Amino acid sequence: MADNLTSRKQDYSQWYNDLVLKGGLAEHSDVRGCMVIKPYGFALWENMRDVLDKMFKETGHQNAYFPLFIPKSYLSKEASHVEGFAKECAVVTHYRLKNDPNGGGVIVDPEAKLEEELIVRPTSETIIWSTYKGWIQSYRDLPILVNQWANVVRWEMRTRLFLRTAEFLWQEGHTAHATKEEAIAETVQMLDVYATFAEEYMAMPVIKGVKTANERFAGAEDTYCIEALMQDGKALQAGTSHFLGQNFAKAFDVKFADKNNNIEYVWATSWGVSTRLIGALIMAHSDDEGLVMPPRIAPLQVVIVPIYNKDAEARQKIDDKAGQLVKELRAKGIRVKFDNDDTSRPGWKFAEYELRGVPVRIALGARDLENNVAEVARRDEKTKASTSLDGLTDYVSALLEEIQQNMYNKALAFRDASITKVDSWEEFVSTLDGKGGFVAAHWDGTAETEDKIKEMTKATIRCIPLNNEQEAGKCILTGNPSTQRVLFARAY
Amino acid sequence: MADNLTSRKQDYSQWYNDLVLKGGLAEHSDVRGCMVIKPYGFALWENMRDVLDKMFKETGHQNAYFPLFIPKSYLSKEASHVEGFAKECAVVTHYRLKNDPNGGGVIVDPEAKLEEELIVRPTSETIIWSTYKGWIQSYRDLPILVNQWANVVRWEMRTRLFLRTAEFLWQEGHTAHATKEEAIAETVQMLDVYATFAEEYMAMPVIKGVKTANERFAGAEDTYCIEALMQDGKALQAGTSHFLGQNFAKAFDVKFADKNNNIEYVWATSWGVSTRLIGALIMAHSDDEGLVMPPRIAPLQVVIVPIYNKDAEARQKIDDKAGQLVKELRAKGIRVKFDNDDTSRPGWKFAEYELRGVPVRIALGARDLENNVAEVARRDEKTKASTSLDGLTDYVSALLEEIQQNMYNKALAFRDASITKVDSWEEFVSTLDGKGGFVAAHWDGTAETEDKIKEMTKATIRCIPLNNEQEAGKCILTGNPSTQRVLFARAY
Q1: Does the predicted TM-score (pTM) go above 0.95?
Q2: Which of B36, B66, B93 shows the shortest C-beta gap to A67?
Q3: Which CATH number fits domain A300-399: 1.10.510.10, 3.10.340.11, 3.40.50.800, 3.40.47.10?
Q4: How large is the ipTM?
Q5: What pLDDT digit, counting tens, does each position of B59-72 carry?
Q6: Are A243 and A183 contacting, i.e. CB atoms less than 8 angstroms apart?
Q7: Strand A419-421 to strand A383-388: parallel, antiparallel, or no bridges (unpaired)?
Q8: Residues of A with CB below 8 A from B62's CB?
Q9: CA separation for the pair B379, B356 (Å, rounded)
């Protein structure tokens, strides 16, 4: 299989597409910009979702579900919000089809026109805050800590599987608070949840920071983000958590009576991650042989491949041993498959599971059994070792954790080596064009300069890192004074 | 709380609405026909979904995700399918909004008109079979056993929370098989999964059967169903499993090479249950005091309500004991909450948890502790008993199972008493108008008679029960010969 894959060096972008398609994660659908998430890709998303969902519940959140459709006028109630989303909306205008009286097949029934058009949700702040108005009267009703798992639609013209699609799956948390401080604390807490998830489960180091005004969510006072680094040196925004101030409360007139019976507007946050994380996962870890899945969220953690010869008795012994291993590994909560499909050869299977990024492969042959060993291969390092069958399940269990840790360490080393401090425009440009990665540089704090730099280099300010060191310096473009470095990068 | 509820006798329909709204399950949204599923209602759906998902996976199915949108022309490819769904479609015609140059706010951008309109999926057979075309070449690619959890939209004009809404949540299984026999076996297997789920988890007895041609899914060869009985004597279709024959394979040209290299069309099934089940659950079990939740899927299984007096030391003892109980119950996997909120009185809490249908309530007061007892109340029978604190968690654990069984038995007794055999038109009408329920009657097997009966009485044939007894008789309307009784009822 692997020889059909494009290598990263040849064509990084094609390599990515090959992995998504041939790795069985997703494919393009007949509907422009919409993808089909295939069973293997969806199993990965389910594992990610289940971990995140648990983390959300442990921090006191509950799930709920709000309508797919948003009345057109709702979008407009928050001025910068509509500005941000109007250009990429799927608009429902009719509610019925009919047979063309002129024989042209099925057509939209012109008599079934909606009085007000409906937008397929690109995000749900507006419909949710119009609902919260009915839920909130007093401080006793606060906080509201709600999350929704949903599909959303943003009509992108240039799409890429997982990274940018017209429809994608995500979660969106929407919380309501009595005080500004509490809302900001919630925003930061959820950013931490995302960072923990990215690092501990996806084995992907991230930098926590705050977006500049230019890059802020449409309707937010502050957008916090986690930024990850891909192997081609480009950054990828992996999750955002927004402090929305009282913007949506004001747009939808959501007020509450505090303990002293003063009437105040409610404070809001929203936060989300999406199936885009799967794109990040692929580009953070995979190699020219295929996907590399971090064990903790891998759809399949261990595959056992039998090496049969023509001896039926030996075959039975292999099957028995494999069956026993499967049972023992499952008892440890490990996701394992015994692939005894006779229609493909072991070599083909090896390549296939490498392509799919299964962390550990166990090969079992007749001679192995005689020697009381199995061949255990790890996907991350592409090494294999003959390993005693005694205590094999403990060994595999520990190996999965070691792989998880190793993947994180490798990604962290790469990321850390890809942060470059520069103090001149020449260095800035040559770093971007050379090794890429994050460029830590001084910026004069104006949107104008930020725009110019973006125009000239395609690099954007990914974030102002949290707990950033204060340091006097001069803006790399204008030479104007600056108090801290920010992180620039070209990004997905 | 309960005195604000409408009773079933007063107004059954209003009673249902009261329970949904005041029980905190769902509410109407500002978007016509779309509901907001509130956290308590969504937690119930999550429990139902998790059980079903496990049952699907245990029968070999995997989840995947297909696009929300379906090109208009796809719907038309299967003739009866488009006939069934064209009249209730949400149609996307544009992909952008813009500012009205005449100052009329945000308007649909007429220049952003789609070449082909997109339908928001009412069901996904068409988009999925157009995808399967790419997945299936040979018998080795079969069977495909895929399920999707998704939102769907059917533009209903008269909506009711959970029972009939424009948007609802559901799962839809879509499988592809090499033989007719295998596809039929899958259809029946999934009907059994649904029946098991309804009976063992929802405590709701169902009748398994086959729909008449009139009531068949648009595009199916045969529709299998489970039918449940509500307390007002009306039937409710709780789940359907369709044998689709080769209809969609032919519509989307999906063929495979069998073992002998003959090229054949693929056989299909689809099967689904939706948030409608929540409506069924409410109407099967609840009473004039509120919801009654079957323990196995109840969002909250046990609530502990402290009865404080003014003694701080006694309060501490109650809190300690409650904390210990919570820990022990959680260790048994029981969903429990200790409601020590000081802002409401115990009586208010009792009514509130009754309204929400929490199966078991434990009240703990200072005197109870002195006597080493707690007051344990069960929601289904509205009885309570002073119970020893020794072994209380075992007692509660067994009680939950007893409640589950009792709810099923009660519903079964009611359902069985509501099946009436009739042999004349007069009896038929008087039964429908009187006790209601299922009416087992002879029918001549024609769609014409079925339509007439529906027109005259609003009763439909709910199903031809599986393993139906053969019995010669005469059609209640036409007197024409019949070989078996079918089940009629008025239905949701």
Answers
A1: yes
A2: B36
A3: 3.40.50.800
A4: 0.96
A5: 999 999 999 999 99
A6: yes
A7: unpaired
A8: 39, 42-43
A9: 10
